[in-house]
Amino acid sequence: MRRFWPLAVLILLVAGIWFWLNPPRFWLNMTKRVEPSPEVGAQLVEKYQCRRCHRIGGEGALKAPDLSGITKRVDDPAHVTLRLWLRNPRAIKPNTAMPNFHLSDTEIEAILLYLEALDEAEASQ
Q1: Dihedral sign computed on CA atoms, order 84, 108, 114, 65
Q2: Can you say whether residue 49 is alpha, beta or left, with left for phi > 0 and alpha for psi between -120 and 50 degrees?
């Protein structure tokens, strides 16, 4: 039994590093679950500091694309492209500067609901 102790520690260490650097989707969905709503999406935009690069709702930087009207500009009513982008930007565009925030599916839904609400409010003005 003592012979396998270092191997067990090594396996646990490798698994821990893997979960930290590239957590699997099921783990993200278990540990980062939120209730999707525009309000939660607004909180997530602040938490992940999206406005440090993007202009959203008239506020933020322009280092990256302006996200005002993004849900209307994309010719994809189900927002599949936006969902895939938020899931892993480098899977869509390998040399992108946008980091992978390892968002859960519910976090992605909440952010999209927030962006849709902003776009609806802007369209009604």
Answers
A1: negative
A2: left
Query: For residue 102, which of 32, 14, 16 has the smallest C-alpha distance?
Result: 32
pLDDT of 76: 83
Q: 23-123 falls under which CATH superfamily?
A: Cytochrome c-like domain (1.10.760.10)
54 near 67, Cβ under 8 Å?
yes
- Cβ 41 vs Cβ 115: under 8 Å: yes
For residue 69 the two structure tokens come to 């009207």
Instruction: Calculate the alpha carbon distances from 63 to 54, 59, 66, 85 in Å.
Output: 6, 12, 9, 17
Q: What is the pLDDT of residues 52-108, one digit of tens each?
A: 999 999 899 999 999 999 998 888 888 999 999 999 999 999 999 999 999 999 999
Residue spans per domain, the chain? 23-123
Segment 9-56, tens digit of pLDDT: 888 888 888 878 888 899 899 999 999 999 999 999 999 999 999 999
Could you give the dihedral angle defined by the CA atoms of residues 98, 119, 105 and 32, in that order, rounded to the nearest 10 degrees?
Answer: 80
